[in-house]
Amino acid sequence: MEALQQSLAETLAGSLGPSGSSGNVANYMGQMAMAMGKLGTLENFLRQADNLRQQTLHQMQRILTIRQAARALLAIHDYFSRLRALSSLWLARPRE
Length: 96
What we know:
- Residues 1-93 form the DOG1 domain.
- The chain has two domains: 1-61, no CATH class; 64-96.
- 0% of the residues are buried.
- The longest helix has 42 residues, at 22-63.
- The chain has helices at residues 2-16, 22-63, 66-91.
- 86% of the residues lie in helices and 0% in strands.
- The protein has three helices and no strands.
């Protein structure tokens, strides 16, 4: 989330431009308010998804056999490893 906020701040700071007129400032503030609202919505969505993930993991022991649970945990580990690698690539991408 911090990286997303940093990227958002950099993008909006670049769109303000050097002129700094009152119209540009008002436009910037409107864009910032809208972006922060969207960021809050995204944060709530991610919290709900994490809560669902935790509930699923807790219920897994009731639903699956030991072997099935082990295979599921290995698959989850592989998924998160790939997601971490993708995130690293995204953060290291060249900026325009």
